[in-house]
Amino acid sequence: MLKEQFFDRIVFNFPHAGFHGKEDENWVVNHQTLHARNTRSGGLQTENKWVVVAMEGETRVADVKKIKHYWSSHKILLVGEGDFSFSLSLARAFGSGANMVATSHDTREMLETKHETAVGNVEEIEKLGCLVLHGIDASEMSENEVLKPMKFDRIVFNFPHAGYHTRWEHQKYQIKLHRRVVKGFFKNAGLMLEKNGETHITHKIAYPFCKWKVEKLAQKSGLILKEECIFSREDYPGYINKRGDGRRSNGTFPVGKCSTFKFKIANEDWMKN
Ligand SMILES: C[S@@+](CC[C@H](N)C(=O)[O-])C[C@H]1O[C@@H](n2cnc3c(N)ncnc32)[C@H](O)[C@@H]1O
């Protein structure tokens, strides 16, 4: 029953291994083992299936599930979702969405007209415990009342796009609009990351999309590229990348050559102070 539950505080008063004999060396070892289990911290990034999450000397053991770059032990913020099929793919893999906040730029009403598949997907992730927010602008999200007090291990924006303002993706004006969205996203995401957190953008890398120069935009917000990984939609069962705008908003598009760019805070020491 406790397997799917997450807690802010887990309390164990007077931990004690029991009275197994005299207070000799073995007794001390038993208690030390228990104590070590109760106070180990920073276990979130280990490769173990079993991870100890310790907060202020308190402990919790969780069965961590993983899908591609994402772990059920990560606090994940999803930005600019289309029909929420990416969030759902993660939540299904984790068996829970309790570690996730999934957001759309569209209001709930707009979403329903743009994506007929969104309603069912949102209902399912909410049932799995995911917090869903609508009308969230990536360039202002750090000031949002609900998101403001939160910090995340992973902040993810798949295929950011400012909408179809001209017919041609290579036009300077169109690229300028896209870059403005991405720049605003990085600026806000940088403020919302936990220590060792990462901001991920999945983006096409062929011309004219390479003209967005996402790495440069990230640098302007104090983020540096940690890794660039080839993106494959098959890694996320059920995910259908959406156009998100125009007459065919619920349509998908060929991803072609594209990558997931992982950025981290350039200077964690500076962030700590
Ligand atoms: C190409 S679609 C991708 C949708 C979704 N991420 C996916 O992979 O299916 C681009 C998305 O960016 C969103 N978007 C545009 N401007 C935004 C902004 N300022 N903040 C957050 N999302 C934005 C749109 O609502 C649209 O859903």
At CATH level 3, the topology of the largest domain is: Rossmann fold
Average pLDDT score: 84
How many helices in DSSP terms?
A: 7
Helix residue percentage: 25-40%
Radius of gyration: 21 Å
Secondary structural class: alpha/beta
The general outline is globular
Which small compounds were modeled alongside the protein?
A: S-adenosylmethionine
Strand arrangement, largest sheet?
Answer: 7-6-5-8-9-11-10
The CATH C-level name of the largest domain is: Alpha Beta
- Beta-strand content bin: 15-25%
Largest sheet: 7 strands, mixed
Quickly count the domains: 2
Order of helices and strands: HEEEEEHEHHEEHEHEEH
Describe this structure in words.
The chain is of the alpha/beta class and 273 residues long. It has two domains: 62 residues, no CATH class; 207 residues, 3-Layer(aba) Sandwich (Rossmann fold), CATH 3.40.50.150. The protein contains seven helices and eleven strands. The strands form three sheets. A seven-stranded mixed β-sheet has the order 7-6-5-8-9-11-10, sandwiched between helices. A hairpin with a 2-residue loop joins strand 3 and strand 4. Helix 2 runs parallel beside helix 4 and helix 5 packs across helix 6. The chain is globular. The two termini are 40 Å apart. S-adenosylmethionine binds next to loops.
Task: Put the structure in a nutshell.
Helices cover 27% and strands 23% of the residues. With 273 residues, it is an alpha/beta fold.
Secondary structure layout:
Elements: H1 25-39, E1 50-55, E2 58-63, E3 66-67, E4 70-71, E5 76-79, H2 85-94, E6 100-103, H3 108-114, H4 118-127, E7 131-133, E8 152-158, H5 172-192, E9 193-204, H6 214-220, E10 223-230, E11 258-265, H7 268-272
Helix pairs in contact: 2-4, 5-6
Bound molecules: S-adenosylmethionine.
S-adenosylmethionine binds at residues 79-82, 86, 105-106, 137-139, 158-162, 181, 241-244.
